[in-house]
Amino acid sequence: MNFLDILRNNTTIGIIGTGKNAGKTVALNEFINIASKHSVRIGITSIGRDGERQDIVTFTEKPPIFVPRGTFVATAEMCLSNFDTEYEIIDITPFQTAMGRVIICEVVEDGFIEIAGPDSNSEIKRVCGFMRDIGADRILIDGALNRKTLASPAVADAVVLSTGAVLSRSMEVTIQKTKHYAKMLCLEKVNDDIETICREAAGMGVVSFIDKNKKIINTKYITALGCGKQITGEIKPEYEYVVLPGTLTSSFIKSIRDVLKEINIKIVVMDGTKVFLDAMDYKTFERLGGRIQVVDSINLAAVTVNPYSPEGYCFDPVIFVEAIREALYPIDVFDCMQGGC
Questions:
Q1: Same domain membership, residue 26 and residue 170
Q2: 316 and 289 share one domain
Q3: Contact predicate 76/116, CB 8 Å
Q4: How far is it, in rounded angstroms, from Cα 57 to Cα 59?
Q5: Number of structural domains, the chain?
Q6: Of 8, 162, 321, 333, which cross-links 17 as Cys (Cβ 3.0–4.6 Å)?
Q7: pLDDT tens, 50-85?
Q8: How many other CB atoms sit within 10 Å of the CB of residue 90?
Q9: CATH number of domain containing 12
Q10: Distance between CA atoms of 322 and 216, rounded to whole angstroms?
């Protein structure tokens, strides 16, 4: 599946990165370019900030974002002064950011833009819906470092993950880190016969158990954070699932390990964006027979790679892309700078 296929098959596409300088903006520009060539009118927003010529944290040069006329943009009002193009304001939303209110505008001539959109998933969803209502065929959402929540199927129909040499000087370490990141996004979905019950349990706002008779047993804990030992202490032999309404971290995994020796219980979260696990902790958990499942699966449509690091080292582009392609099969992998997206 190439980028055009992703555009054709999905209405809202999120682009997230494994870190800064992983090539996320390059992937975004590739989508914009392909959409323009095929007369696909797009709307663009961001859950972070992008399009500035220099990274405000690392002070490294960044690729600018170039859009064709007719593109809809949802961005913070302070970013508008950095547009290198003419635009027409369509609406001023009530959503506030550190850079001012989120403005919906239409670009009236080809040029460069800067985006800094809403801070929450609910606001992103509303902004995307508005841009679709006024004529956008497809929506592109630019992610931010450590903000993979936009990959949630509640926000994006498809996700593209950008990774690169910035993760490590070792190609093998970079590949393994990327493989783990992708695996957490693509965790196994619960069986159809239990999905509705798991969704109901997750929606109750507290950690819950589901027993062999598909009965929900609520706990008093609104989160598993800091409560791992207490929650696992309440697990009974007849329980088959523990459903977390929020995030899953390594600390909870460590708490539940001893229980797995006697009780085969599965952990359920809403989707892979709720999982924040160290690779080693996850592997240990798996070896003990532990399983993590999700209510909603994420559509990881492709992975893009950047073989260059701003620290001055790089991997062989051909070897790197082929190695990641093999490690992530059957997920499609592209190097946007080499073409073929």
A1: yes
A2: no
A3: yes
A4: 6
A5: 2
A6: 162
A7: 545 555 555 556 788 999 999 999 999 999 999 999
A8: 15
A9: 3.40.50
A10: 46
Alpha helix positions (H), the chain = 3-9, 24-37, 121-133, 171-185, 192-202, 228-232, 250-260, 279-287, 317-328
CATH number of residue 199's parent domain? 3.40.140
Query: Which long-range contacts (C-beta less than 8 Å, at least 24 apart) are formed by 126-129?
Result: 126/93, 126/95, 127/45, 127/74, 127/93, 127/95, 127/102, 128/12, 128/43, 128/45, 128/74, 128/155
- Amino acid at the residue 218: N
Whether the ω angle into residue 310 lies within 30 degrees of 0, i.e. cis, is no
Q: Provide the pairing of β-strand 12-17 with 158-164.
A: parallel
Look up tokens 């219980």; give the residue: 265
Are 266 and 326 in the same domain? no
Specify the 3-state DSSP secondary structure of 93: strand
Predicted confidence (pLDDT) per residue in 100-122, tens digit: 999 999 999 999 999 998 888 88
Nearest CA-CA partner of 145 in 128, 162, 123, 129:
162
Q: Say whether both 124 and 240 belong to one domain.
A: no
Q: Kindly report, residue by residue over 219-259, the tens digit of the pLDDT.
A: 999 999 999 999 999 999 999 999 999 999 999 999 998 88
Domain that residue 92 falls in: 3-185+299-338
233 and 179 in one domain? no
